[in-house]
Design a protein that fits this description.
Layout: E1 19-23, H1 27-39, E2 43-48, H2 52-62, E3 66-68, H3 71-76, E4 82-85, H4 89-101, E5 106-109, H5 116-129, E6 133-136, H6 143-154, E7 160-168, H7 188-204, E8 209-216, E9 222-230, E10 239-245, E11 254-258, E12 261-265, E13 276-279, E14 284-286, H8 298-310, H9 321-338
Parallel strand pairs: 1-2, 1-4, 2-3, 4-5, 5-6, 7-10
Antiparallel strand pairs: 7-11, 8-9, 9-10, 11-12, 12-13, 13-14
Helix pairs in contact: 1-8, 4-5, 5-9, 7-9
Length: about 350
């Protein structure tokens, strides 16, 4: 009888309560705060927007004590311990640097920045300031991910043969929507494709070779990108495949297949999910259903970063800056080749 390891992920409620400043008032900020307030002891102390009216409306909805009509005012607020950057990718570098310049630890939504050069600049700034900085790749902090992490570390899958992940969503053609807007660093890869690319890095590390093809949306941003990878250090013979699109609702699942067993993660693979391990002898076991579901899983990354900050760590052991830089390098290479 095969068995799965138990996740070692701490209960998000156990992380020391810190005061968060939310920079940006969009869709992901709403879900992050909702998850944080429901499943952790973390609290939003202030919100910053580009207008006072929008900041006040957001603060009222989420019961924040203070609302700031500029990002500069938010990061200067002495009553916040952490800044969470939830603006479009095009603004991540400037917004995160603003927080660091004010001496605040910063959690930056994925994708970390618009380009590898920007990501390196931001990582350098955080390290020079000796301040905590982390990409908000929430998948890395989920209990299901820790089960897979242990299976990989224990060699339970044998030699890895193939890794697969896809993420496709359907969006109506709208030139003003951030995913279609070049000025906001739109496109499938940075917003959706970052999940499958990060999953490949998690399973195998950085690829030695990547071949990609793709198409452009009507605004010129990447509409669809598919890629195959090989040349992974420590995994001779392993290949990986990904696909991302913003014009089709794909299965959005992932698996890691080895010579001894395969682990599968169903839709949507990047959030809290039960995982299934199946051996080559057809024995199968599935983990328990997650206790924190859907986007409430964002609570785990909030708790992880809060604990990191409270303990005086400047980089996450689960999502270090060098890992973020490697993922950014892969995505940049994929886009260059796919859209050439």
């Amino acid at each position: 009888m095969i068995a799965l390891p138990q996740p070692r992920t701490p209960d998000p409620m156990t992380a020391p309560p810190l005061r968060w400043g939310i920079l940006g008032t969009g869709w992901i900020a709403e879900r992050f705060i909702d998850a944080m307030h429901r499943h952790t002891q973390q609290r939003m102390a202030a919100v910053g927007s580009r207008t006072q009216a929008k900041a006040e409306e957001f603060a009222h909805r989420f019961e924040a004590p203070r609302a700031h009509g500029s990002y500069e005012a938010l990061v200067a607020d002495p009553e916040i311990d952490i800044v969470y950057v939830a603006t479009p990718h095009s603004e991540h570098l400037a917004n995160a640097l603003l927080a660091l310049s004010a001496g605040k630890p910063v959690l930056v939504e994925k994708a970390f920045t618009q380009t590898l050069a920007q990501a390196q600049e931001l990582a350098n700034a955080a390290r020079a300031a000796k301040l905590p900085a982390m990409e908000a790749m929430w998948t890395r902090f989920l209990p299901s991910t820790d089960i897979v992490r242990q299976l990989l570390a224990d060699g339970a899958l044998g030699d890895i043969e193939t890794v697969y992940a896809d993420h496709g969503q359907w969006f109506a053609d709208d030139a003003t929507h951030r995913l279609f807007d070049p000025a906001q660093a739109g496109g499938a890869m940075l917003d959706l494709g970052v999940y499958p690319v990060s999953f490949v890095h998690f399973a195998l590390g950085a690829p030695g070779r990547a071949l990609s093809v793709g198409t452009k949306a009507f605004t010129g941003v990447d509409r669809q990108v598919s890629a195959v990878f090989d040349g992974f250090d420590g995994h001779p013979g392993a290949t990986a495949l990904i696909n991302t699109t913003l014009k089709s609702l794909t299965p959005t699942r992932a698996f890691i297949a080895g010579t001894e067993a395969t682990v599968e993660i169903p839709t949507f693979f990047y959030g809290p999910q039960p995982i299934t391990l199946t051996t080559v002898g057809r024995e199968s076991v599935t983990s328990e259903a997650p206790t924190v579901e859907g986007h409430f899983g964002l609570a785990y990354e909030a708790a992880h970063f809060a604990a990191m900050v409270a303990e005086g760590q400047t980089e996450s052991e689960l999502m270090p800056l060098d890992e973020t830089l490697a993922v950014m390098a892969t995505m940049e290479g994929l886009l260059k080749n796919a859209l050439a």
